[in-house]
Amino acid sequence: MNHRSWMRSQGFTSEVFDGRPVIGIATTWSELAPCNVHLHRVAESVKRGVWQAGGFPLEFPAMALGETLLRPTAMLYRNLLAMEAEELIRANPLDGVVLLSGCDKTTPGLLMAAASVGLPAIMVTGGPKLNGKYQGTDVGSGTAVWRWEEDLLAGRMTQEECAFAEGCMSRSDGHCMTMGTASTMASMAEALGMQLPYSASWPAVDSRRYETAQRAGQVIVDLVEHDVTPAQIMTREAFENAIRVNAAIGGSTNAVVHLLAIAGRLGVPLELDDFDTLVRDVPTLVNLQPSGKYLMEDFCYAGGLPAVMRELGGLLHGGALTVTRHTVAENVRDAPCWNRDVIMPLGQPFQPAGTGTAVLRGNLAPDGAVIKQSAASPHLLKHRGRALVFDSPEAYHEVAADPDLDADEDTVLVIRYCGPKGYPGMPETANVPLPAKLLKRGVRDMVRICDGRMSGTAYGTVVLHVAPEAAAGGALALVRTGDWITLDVPARTLTLDVPDDELAARRAVWAPPPPAAVRGWTWLYTRHVQQADTGCDLDFLTGASGHQVGRDSH
Ligand code: FES
């Protein structure tokens, strides 16, 4: 009676307690997370589907992480969302859960939570914005910002033009509509089998986004009735599919840390090197910004992810199970492609195989670093240059406009103390803009090395996720301005050309930075966060606890 009576205060009739599945709808709606601001409407469509299928839907909030507003970085809170959602899903009397996400970290955070609980789950991402339109051309979220920022610094654009352009870029509900991290992670959720085919690409304002949400409401009831859990769907084969799909779509490097973290919750053996070795025979098929030309709306009209997965054919594990309770191969067998300039054929790809994410190692990154080759300049993939070192992105920004800065196009910019412990939270600071004096000379790229991340909407020859990070005593902390650094992407190496005995001497006088916090979440995070090569989860959150609670206090 306690449980039922209090629920009756919402006006439910007694039939809802007749034993039908109770479906939680975890929504990351918030006005502070503009990419997710329409999710309360998406939730209404999910509820329709749940009712239709004979379930009892109950919507509840999960921490909304807005990439653009949260300080110092939304990544600092991905694990907090995962922890909060996990406990909410487990502690409430739910039989299954629908995960509503959108902005970058909300998708992996909710998948990590669902993986650790193990109840049947389905994801519905909120969809991308419509294409940005500025001065007669399409402009992409984030990607255009980086370009405009450089144009502003170089004097090619005025502040007034920038202010007008920003409204033109963001003109509808939805997450970034480039193949940035949000679009990538939505695609990863679909490639993993955790959301319905086409879910990743319907624009946020497209009526078919809402149809898909309603369908997801029906499907979650089916998954509960057949007890299909995330662990049955997100297998090693599913992760291999996701990694290959990420290469084919030219997806974000952030998928590396997120997929590693999700796999860690499930006990699926997945390693950093998988993101290199598994994609060497996968060409980039999708011509989307930041690597290419088009945007997610075009991708949708061209056939979306099913068209890509069909094209990949034998490169994927076709027998992997999905939330439809059909296999990947069954889902995409008849998926058409309507625009071969957006989704190119396997035999005539946008970029050849071997141009995806590369994992680098060497004395500067013993535990690995990554580079997105498709976003890099080919002439810089083999490069030797002198280091110009900054202990924070802010320190670099202070001098970036200095006309006397000792840098040229061969310089290697090192931006450090940006890792999970260092900043803290591993922000997207690696793709710092080039020094103004080089931009004015028309230089558009140079090698940058960082223990932080790069926005999925960004581009450039940027070595990311260096592990161990500087704040954890990685070799990056020992680099000095003037040292020579050799980047050799074909050989997969990143080398600091300094003798071992000199590095040992530098290490002897190195001291770790003071802790970023002495209490609260940031204290807990920096004490327990793992390095980028294993996904930046907290050490005590890896693995799963199932959905049984210890004792019922009532
Ligand atoms: Fe939310 Fe890009 S800022 S998806």
What topology emerges from the helices and strands here?
Elements (H helix, E strand, L loop, with lengths): L1 H7 L13 E6 L11 H14 L3 E6 L16 H14 L4 E6 L4 H12 L3 E5 L6 E3 L2 E3 L3 H11 L5 H11 L11 H11 L15 H19 L4 H4 L2 H14 L4 H13 L7 H4 L18 H7 L1 H9 L15 H5 L24 E6 L2 E8 L9 E9 L2 H7 L12 E4 L20 H5 L7 E3 L11 E6 L16 E5 L4 E4 L3 H10 L10 H9 L26
Parallel strand pairs: 1-2, 1-3, 3-4, 9-10, 10-11, 11-12
Antiparallel strand pairs: 5-6, 7-8, 8-12, 9-13, 13-14
Helix pairs in contact: 2-8, 3-4, 4-11, 5-6, 7-10, 7-11, 10-11
This protein binds FE2/S2 (inorganic) cluster.
Task: Give an account of the 3D structure.
- It is a single chain.
- The strands form 3 sheets. Strands 7-8-12-11-10-9-13-14 form an 8-stranded mixed β-sheet. A 4-stranded parallel β-sheet has the order 2-1-3-4, with helices on both faces. Strands 5-6 form a two-stranded antiparallel ribbon.
- About 35% of the residues lie in helices and about 15% in strands.
- By secondary structure, the chain is α/β, with parallel strands linked by helices.
- Strand 7 and strand 8 form a beta hairpin.
- Bound molecules: FE2/S2 (inorganic) cluster (FES).
